[in-house]
Design brief:
By secondary structure, this protein is mainly α. The chain is built from seven helices and three strands; from the N terminus they run αααβααββαα. The chain is globular.
Length: 166
């Protein structure tokens, strides 16, 4: 397995482990002064993986084309099942290093930009994007009195640097 596929697989496994450790109530609860629940963050992460898998088949990933499936926000078991499915794809799928185009519109008043990318860059993006949301999820779990596994919400580079600094 290519190292970035392995990293994505591993980071999804971290999410599965966390989801199995929290309650349904914790998953859907919004903490005071927070804009999104743990479930909403996982929905957002999972929909990026969904768009990645759909997009690499056709050579174009549109990260704005999220379905915003409310079931992923409220059904922890469905989120676990979805995450397991995406994690297993990294073991099963063969990747081709063909160019991709990406669209993501940050300003709806302007035309949607389409940029050139590649599989490696998008695999890196998925890890970075997921870690970013895991860091927020980590805070939400702790605010709810829960515990997160060591390293959850930290980039692999940060964890590596922490080991080197010891």
């Amino acid at each position: 397995m290519n190292p970035l596929s392995a990293e994505n697989h591993q980071i999804l496994e971290q999410g599965i482990h966390l989801l199995k450790s929290i309650s349904n109530e914790s998953y859907t609860q919004r903490q005071q002064n927070m804009d999104a629940s743990i479930g909403e963050h996982f929905r957002h992460i999972l929909e990026h993986y969904e768009l990645f898998w759909e997009g690499i088949k056709v050579g174009h990933i549109d990260y704005d084309n999220r379905k915003r499936n409310p079931e992923l926000e409220v059904n922890r078991l469905f989120a676990i099942e979805s995450m397991m499915g995406y994690a297993s794809k990294f073991n099963e799928e063969t990747f081709y290093l063909e160019p991709l185009t990406i669209s993501q519109n940050y300003n709806p008043k302007k035309p949607v930009p389409i940029v050139t990318s590649n599989l490696t860059r998008e695999l890196m993006f998925l890890v970075s994007h997921t870690v970013h949301h895991y860091a927020i999820i980590s805070i939400l779990v702790k605010l709810d009195g829960g515990v997160v596994p060591n390293g959850f919400g930290f980039s692999p580079a940060t964890l590596y640097a922490k080991v080197i600094d010891r």
